[in-house]
Amino acid sequence: MSPVLYSFRRCPYAMRARLAIKSSGFSVEIREVVLRDKPQAMLSISPKATVPVLVVSPDLLLEESLDVMRYILGKHDPQSWLSSDTEKAKPLLEGLHAFFIPELNKYKYAKRDYDNIDPLIHREKALSYLRELDQKLANGRGLITKEKGFVDYVILPFVRQFSMVEQAWFNDQDLPNLRPWLKTFLEGDLFQSIMTKYSQWHEGDEPQFF
User: How far, in Å, CA of 156 to CA of 7, rounded?
Assistant: First the structure.
């Protein structure tokens, strides 16, 4: 029986899982979730009710995107992504989760989820993190190693999300290393391969494989 991945195409956390799975060469049964209509099969095993969820076996359930990535790549890592998952990466990953993503959310979802905040203040705060990434990219195509690896693919889905809020404004920013880094990711075969559209999964559907 193949592992089962509950996913949502546009969720950056779920993108991480699909990127690692595709890079590893593994095959999983993919169950596309509509966030406003989450399947009971997922909720019954993962009450946190967020994607991704990877059901490896009855005894092994992975509910966090980084756990999914590390588990899959720990089994097979043909492109040596995990070589960038080192002590040097910790400040970038901590900054991503503790600082950039909260600021991104306040910028992107200011009208929907927050009262009386100025999204442009949070846009500028988030941009400061991207400037740090831009400096890291000055010496190569990856943040830690010379080519993109684990850390890059952990961060890229969220940079993509930020860039899409105001695309013209983003394109005007002085990020000479980061914008090509993002562009090559978005135009590359790996990203294109994980963005296949799947119909919403319902109990009893024929399996679809990713």
Answer: 18
Place of tokens 């927050």: 114
Token pair listed for 134: 């831009």
> What residues form DSSP beta bridges with 200?
32
Q: CB within 8 A of 174, min separation 6: which ones?
A: none
What is the rounded CA–CA span in Å between residue 187 and residue 182? Answer: 9
In this structure, are residues 16 and 68 in contact, taking their beta carbons and an 8 Å threshold? yes
**pLDDT digit string, tens, across residues 65-101:** 999 999 999 999 999 999 999 999 999 999 999 999 9
Two tokens at 198?
């799947």
Give dist(CA 130, CA 25) in Å, integer. Answer: 30
**Which residues 6+ apart lie within 8 Å of 165 measured at CB?**
107, 108, 123
For the chain, how far is it from start to end, CA to CA, in angstroms? 14
CB neighbourhood size of 80 (10 A): 13
Separation CA 169–CA 43 (nearest Å): 39
pTM listed for this prediction: 0.95
Q: 157 near 15, Cβ under 8 Å?
A: yes
Q: What percent of the chain has pLDDT over 90?
A: 95
Count CB neighbours of 147 within 10 A: 14
Three-state DSSP class for residue 187: helix
